[in-house]
# Entry
Amino acid sequence: MQAENSAARIHLFILGGIIAATALLSFAPPSVLAHGPSCVFHTFFHLNCPFCGMTRDFTDILHGQKPHLNPFSWIAVGVIYLVYPVLFFWAWSQQRLGLFHQPAVHKTVAAALVVMLVVNNLPY
# Structure
């Protein structure tokens, strides 16, 4: 039971971070974009990481504009704001938070990241 509570706290912390980041991108986009994180992957390898461009795309989406920097921005929005919270609260209510640590979940996420890396570096 203690492990389940610890896992729940971690997921609640992640959801809180999503809410805080959304609020920052909604109400102070210039300061976030000007002082936001730089991509270490891009710096070292000169390739777009799977998430390159998403911060600016999320800001565009929050302000009613179409995202244009990362082809997976809309999918990421769906996963971050719908799939993950619903799955978390369902797993928490069923006392099955271990679901997030299954090898199949890790392999699916890894495969998705590889696809995102490849597609995000294709020329438009």
